[in-house]
Amino acid sequence: MYDPNEETRAIPYIPEHEDAFPRLPDYNQLDEDLTQKSPGKKPRRKRRGCFRNCFVVGLLIMGLVIFGAIISTATVVYTRFSSELNEGIAKLDSADEREFFETTRINDRNGELLWEIFGDGKRTYVELDKIPLEFQQATISVEDDTFYENVGADIPSLIAALIYNFRNPNERPVGASTITQQLVRHIAFDYEERTAVSYNRKAREIVLAWIMNRDYPKDQILEMYLNEIYYGNLAYGIEAAAQTYFGKSAEDLTIPEQTMLAGLPQAPAELDPINNFEAAKQRQWIVLNLMVSEGYLDADDITDYYQEPLVFAEQTVSLKAPHFATYVRRQLELQFGSEELANSGLQVTTSLDMRYQEMAEAFAKHHVDQLKADHNLNNASLVALKPETGEVLAMVGSVDYQDESIDGKVNIATSLQQPGSTIKPITYAAAMTPDTNGIPAWQPGDIVWDVETKYQQTNGQTYVPVNYDERYHGPVRLRSALANSYNIPAVLLLQDIGIPWFLEFADRMGIGSLGQDGSRFGLSLTLGAGEVTPLELTAAYATFANGGRKVTPVTILEVHSSDGELLWSHEQLDQPQVIDERVAFLINDILADDEARVPAMGRDNPLDLPFTAAAKTGTTNDFRDNWTVGYTPGLAVGVWTGNTDNTPMINVSGLDGAAPLWNDFMTAVYADIDLQNELETNSILPPSDFAVPAGVEQRSICTLSSIVPGATDCQVGGSEWYIAQFGSNSNQTLSDELVSWEEIEPSVIKVPAAALPELSAEVIQAEIDNPNPDPDALPRMTMCHFPEGIVKVDLPPSAADQIFLLPPRNLQSRKAAYEWSAENGVAILPTELCTDDMIALVNPDGAVQRITSPSPNEVVEGVFPIMGTADFDMARAQFFKVELGVPQTDQTIQWVTLGDVHDQPVRNGQLETLYSDGLTPGTYFLRVIVINRDGNYAGEPAAVPFVIEEK
Q1: Which residue among 77, 143, 554, 777 is least packed, with the fewest CB closer than 10 Å?
Q2: Nearest to 589 by CA among 662, 715, 674, 482
């Protein structure tokens, strides 16, 4: 019974965009007398001319011929099915003659009961005069607009359906069923025959509908239909539906409520307004428009009906893992049918493990309670699944299913949310995927420029992505860019690979919510501008854990009949390889690199677990969504925190708002042997570390801070994984007598270069005073480079092989990259080619002096060779010497000559030897000086600092 004191909730539907309203039909062609509202008498239409009348008459004649043929053919079965029909109709009048309802039970994987579904408690028969006229009209409009005129079957619609089926033999046949046919099908056929696609069954259905139409008044047929049809949520008939959804009798329903319910019988599971409100509203809009086209409502009124808030009754159910259980119920309805589910006593074994579920629910509630007051964080969702099989072990849709203040019944795990930076690994994986020639566009060791970048958009505006810390980090490796979640590199990669490829790649991994229409998105898509569900994003991350094999979430393992017969069993098939296993490993290795994310997240952050685990956080604008999705080889867990109504939280990021919950759950699972054993597949536990596939190799990489102007080599800064055979150190071989560029690594190159002369004060001032400077002009180069292929002996003495970073691949970043390099002392390949005139200007004294080793601030120990160049014209200069600088105060340095003076030039060789063991810890300097024959310096001495550390 309906309790008037029962809690209700109001859901207003005010679309945010004009496109949310389907366009209204043109009703100008309807007659003005749209006042008749009887479902049995529809308004008359305007005359359409002789041709149309002839066409309609011809169509009807054709239909009658076909129908006559059907009737003649079906005469043989008349006697058999008329009695069957009468028996079925008689069952409606006596509940104790209806088939026995058996309870369906949904259990977890270990047999623990989650939900008992009873089929027989939600059907109450009401007479037609107790059912609102508008609801009758709405049902006729959407289900059978010729109900009061047809003979039980709609002949023109049947002909159209036959033609469509003939033209589309590979598609599911269209039936064009009337209300009478639907009723006959429901009471005269069992479930298997009712759901079968069969022309034989269709023919019998038409005959029986004709018999019913002959023997029963139209109003009685409509009354039986409205009391028999299924409206979802175990509600059979309009009275049960009215009580279930709105907590009131059918005769008290408003027009908005009536039009909402009238649209449900077509697909009650998919159109469930409790769990899929948006789809139900779209169906309601169709119903309202059809009522206008039939003359039952005025076009001016339906927008108000559509926007009127709907107040749904509190859905009180007693079940465990409620969001998971209701999710499984909808899957079962789609697979077996709602009546079979409600009445047949199915015994369902699901993938859920209540130990995982209860632990997830407890952690989620505790976490929200801790953050609610200070951060306005009121809800959380968690999904846990096995990467190897896709089996869902836990699904928390909200922290309290019964709490309407947080829209607790909304299953966040299957609802669309903006993912923030948790979508970035998809971008990086797509960028590192080899092309058809087997060559990846990007590798983890490649350098991407994190500098100010401006994109001109088609609407004339400029898009300038910014990092969360509002800083630019210059040249960064892909590993560091992803691990620290820098925004600008992610945008640059998406620009490089293109939005269509990103969407295709995401769809491969099971993220279908984004669709394939790239025109809907801009480059901010890689920062989380699209919407995905936690369930599909967690499954996509599990694809990484699964070595690139697709992971499809599995929730139902077996279904048995009430007598134990196995009706259906999940078959674990080989999962398709949707991304390169090498790429999956690279993503795993980066997301599991605790050291790499220290610059952004610090040490001992919530992603740092005592075992190998990969993870990524995400935060959306205004703190509306917090995410952490992470995994081991055996368990993938996705966490979302926020507010169901999308109101902003207060100053809380994914690292603080979601990661601690993820950490608690993962740590608890791996601290419990029994829970770990549940991760077995075929009695084998998953590995503890991510397997290294064939086809990847480690290579040494440079420390980026060592690539400074004048450096002739880089310091090795560890190693990085690369997809093998590509981006190696091999170079095209040139003659030893010719200049060749050496690729140290894909983004670092050694090139002969020379310094350029400084500009005069007049030229500098002229540039400052220029009223129309070129906004795209690069900053002035301080060096020039020599091209490959020229003769080495023709190089001037000032030329030397030096280390440079390659400029950005995208033109939008190039100017900012050169500016950042100039300001921060980073050597980027100069754009100027060296000429004879340039060299003459830069070296008027004929001397070149520089130290290349040690590099600036290098730690030195033991006997250390000092490398560099001291090149001079022996006719003008006497010698060179190397001096050690010992700081005396903050302003003064005492210089001491090391070794001897040297009267022979040295080019890119050893200048002297430093014996450092006698030096106390601290900072010192080295410099090389060329002395002219007049006793003066030949140019400025070149000095570098170095460090002696305490042993």
Answers
A1: 777
A2: 482
pLDDT attached to residue 24: 40
C-beta separation of 467 from 487 below 8 A: yes
Higher pLDDT, 396 or 215: 396
CA distances from 880 to 213, 758, 788, 853, 908 (A): 115, 24, 31, 17, 14
Bridge partners, residue 625, by sequence: 642
Q: Which residues contact 226 (CB under 8 A, 6 or more apart)?
A: 128, 131, 135, 136, 139, 237, 238
CA separation, residue 888 to residues 598, 835, 921, 947, 948 (Å): 37, 43, 14, 15, 16
pLDDT tens-digit series, residues 599-634: 999 999 999 999 999 999 999 988 999 999 999 999
Maximum C-alpha span of the chain: 130
Residue range 711-739, pLDDT digits in tens: 888 888 889 999 997 444 444 566 777 88
Tokens matching residue 263: 């649209």
pLDDT digits (tens, 9 = 90+) for 227-271: 888 888 878 889 888 988 998 999 999 999 999 999 999 888 788
Distance CA 261, CA 702 (A): 67
- The mean pLDDT of the chain is 83
Which DSSP helix (H) or strand (E) runs through 334? helix 322-336
Q: At what angle do helices 179-188 and 50-92 cross, to 10 degrees?
A: 30
359 φ/ψ angles, rounded to the nearest 5 degrees: -65, -45
Lookup result for tokens 């159910």? 317
Q: Going by C-beta distance under 8 Å and a sequence separation of 6 or more, which residues neighbour residue 438?
A: 725, 726
Q: What is the dihedral of CA 660, 370, 468, 526, to 10 degrees?
A: 60
- Identity at 597, one-letter amino acid code: R
Closest CA to 488 of 517, 519, 463, 457: 463
DSSP string, 261-327: HHTSTTSTTTT-TTT-HHHHHHHHHHHHHHHHHTTSS-TTTHHHHHHS-EEEEP-----SSHHHHHH
What is each CA distance from 470 to 96, 451, 484, in whole angstroms?
72, 11, 13
pLDDT confidence band for 890 (50 / 70 / 90): low
For residue 375, the surrounding DSSP H or E stretch is: helix 354-375
Neighbours of 437 (CB within 10 A): 6
User: CA 274 to CA 234: how far, in whole Å?
Assistant: 13
- Residue tagged 């005010």 (tokens): 14
Distances (CA, A) of 292 to 279, 296, 532, 791, 807: 20, 6, 36, 86, 64
How many residues comprise the chain?
951
List Cβ neighbours of 334 (8 Å cut-off, separation of 6 or more): 269, 270
